[in-house]
Design goal:
This protein has 248 residues and is an alpha/beta fold. It has two domains: 3-97, Udp-n-acetylmuramoylalanyl-d-glutamate--2,6- Diaminopimelate Ligase, Chain: A, domain 1 (3-Layer(aba) Sandwich); 103-219, Udp-n-acetylmuramoylalanyl-d-glutamate--2,6- Diaminopimelate Ligase, Chain: A, domain 1. 37% of the residues lie in helices and 25% in strands. It has a six-stranded mixed sheet with strand order 5-6-8-9-10-7.
């Protein structure tokens, strides 16, 4: 399909204009006008670029792209190498950050809930990024952690009592530890995100609410994967998800 047709479709599907973001969403680097083979991944690292070239892709679809607010804008070093790779292979780079976190079906948070059997009941936080809901059945914090480890292929860090019973849960993928305190105020038994900061430990200990840090990369693999699968089904595009391992 035509690149511009694809970008228009994704802008509408993900409701891009709605979001205040830290980077441009959509086409970040322009390549060939026709999309024939698309590779999806979490972050447009050099390793993913090289893997996409090896896979014969002309378009790369990611959650974490380039041109973040506050970054040094000079095209030197690794930035030069990444852009040289894209431009040298006439490859499109499409990136969707907050719109892909927030999408009610294909987004990272929606996909976490689907894969872990959480029943979504509402949203909270800035731009309604964080989700709140309940488990299919109550679990101890230890058992919930084991279930997440199996789904994410990564052992989560649990701050809290392993025997605590979890019924209501809040979650937000990536670096969303800032929503922990609002989640506590909403009466959750546990909160799940990708990262953890030093004050988060004290909040968990003093509130008695369990906190799970499951990995920024691990919690944000499923959205872009689901989006690629959607594009393949909708348009018959040749799409492949490539996961570049990341321990964080």
């Amino acid at each position: 399909m035509k690149r511009d047709e694809l970008t228009r479709y994704l802008e509408e599907l993900l409701d891009v204009p709605k979001f205040r973001d830290y980077c441009p969403n959509g086409l970040q680097v322009e390549g060939c006008p026709e999309v024939r083979r698309l590779v999806a991944g979490v972050t447009a690292s050099q390793a993913l670029l090289d893997a996409a070239i090896e896979a014969g892709a002309d378009t790369l679809l990611v959650h974490h792209g380039y041109f973040w607010r506050g970054e040094d804008g000079r095209v030197t070093g690794l930035r030069k190498n990444r852009l040289k790779t894209l431009l040298g292979h006439d490859m499109n780079l499409l990136a969707y950050h907050l719109p892909l976190d927030a999408h009610p079906e294909l987004g990272n948070n929606a996909q976490l809930a689907r894969r872990l059997g959480w029943q979504a009941e509402g949203r909270f936080g800035d731009q309604d990024m964080a989700w709140i809901g309940s488990l299919e059945e109550p679990l101890t914090a230890l058992a919930l952690g084991e279930k997440m480890a199996a789904a994410l292929d990564r052992e989560p860090l649990l701050i809290g009592a392993p025997e605590r019973e979890i019924r209501r849960i809040g979650w937000c993928s990536g670096g969303a530890q800032g929503y922990f305190e609002p989640a506590i105020a909403l009466g959750v038994d546990a909160y799940v995100s990708g990262e953890i900061s030093e004050p988060t430990v004290h909040l968990a200990r003093e509130s008695g609410v369990a906190y799970f840090a499951c990995g920024h990369h691990a919690t944000e693999r499923f959205g872009v994967q689901a989006l690629a699968e959607h594009l393949a089904a909708r348009f018959g595009l040749d799409c492949e998800f490539i996961d570049i391992a990341n321990p964080v």
